[in-house]
Amino acid sequence: MPKLSTEPTTSSYFSNWDRNLLSLTHELSGPLTAASLNLEKYLLASNPESLEMLKSNLKLMEDYLANTRQLIRRLPVPPRPFSVNKQLANIVRNLSPVASQSLVTIKLNVDEDCALRGNATRFKQIISCVIRNAIDSYDDCLRLNRYVVVEHHLIKDYLVVSIKDHGSGISKAYKSKIFKPYFSTKRGTSGLGLGLSLAAESITEDFMGYVKVESDKNNGTTFRLFFRLPKVDMLK
After folding, report:
1. How is residue 231 annotated by DSSP?
2. Torsion angle, CA of 41/46/48/49, rounded to 10 degrees?
3. For residue 78, is pLDDT > 90?
4. Strand (E) or helix (H) holding 195
């Protein structure tokens, strides 16, 4: 099974200005699609759950906008401890309508919670991007059981978030290109080819981490995202 890792690359593809604007453009598409789907469900069936999810989608978009506004104005965004399980649960909830549209189920398998220290919005952007790519991997796949499994565990000084699918996989021809900006395997104009490159850069720049990928053509892909754990005294 071929493996690909961003470790220990630390080079930046984008200027701060480019990175913030491109990231915002890319990341808003997810919650915007989910908000549209939830609004449609609510209008058709007056489903209270859809209304609550719509509010959650809109709140996520507000967070992305506020975070980008601070970064563009060069206002400090102080790192704060945040619950990994809580953030993962919110991400899965926000992306569930998008997954359902593709007949995909997101499974969140987590046990003991832990804390990271940093920008929680950045964390959500990184994880959301990889999950959306996992959902998209089923676009050209005829599998009936379409799952994306999200898990996490600790390895030495890192929290490792694992995101696994059984979709179309990554061919050998593409495996060295997926973290390059503007590279996309999506047809038409649905993808800018920026998501994974921005996510990998953000893990390096914001969380002192890296990404490893294992993929087998037609048998799925596993992304392992390594986030540096804070020292105990930094969580206070």
Report:
1. P
2. -20
3. no
4. helix 195-207
Tell me, what's the pLDDT at 11?
Answer: 43
The residue among 129, 148, 23, 47 whose CA lies nearest residue 55 is 47
Is the model's pLDDT at 216 over the cut of 70? Answer: yes
Please tell me the distance from the alpha carbon of residue 115 to that of residue 204, in angstroms, as a whole number. 18
* Residues 159-215: tens digit of each pLDDT: 999 999 999 888 887 877 888 766 666 654 445 456 788 888 889 988 999 999 999
Quick one: tokens of 63? 């967070």
Helix ranges (H only) for 102-166 are 120-136
- How far is 24 from 6, CA to CA, in rounded Å? 22
Tokens of 57: 């989608």
Closest CA to 129 of 30, 213, 227, 228: 30
Name the residue among 30, 26, 16, 13 with its Cα closest to residue 192. 26
Place of tokens 């046990």: 111
- The mean pLDDT value for 103-109 works out to 95
Averaged pLDDT score across all residues of the chain: 78
Looking at residue 78, its amino acid is P
